[in-house]
Amino acid sequence: MTSSIFALIGGAEVMWIAIVVLVLFGAKKVPELMKGVGTGIKEFKKASRDVQDEVQRAIDDSDRTPPPSPAPAVRPAQENVSHSPKA
After folding, report:
1. Is the dihedral of CA 18, 23, 24, 28 positive or negative?
2. Of 2, 3, 10, 53, which has fewest CB within 10 angstroms of its CB?
């Protein structure tokens, strides 16, 4: 199902939701509630933008820095072993 829930809500439904909100919270509380909702949305968008900026900055930094060069291979030290039998 590709339709959004908001596509299913019409004008009459929005009016009923508004009436229920007015009855539950009263006319004096609704502006305070909407202010809180607006502030929450504003902060959410700011945090989302900050995360996107941080990810973009990390991607840009990884593009600029060259990959680390591989460490030189170290061979184990060879012991002085004589292969001739000692008498």
Report:
1. positive
2. 2
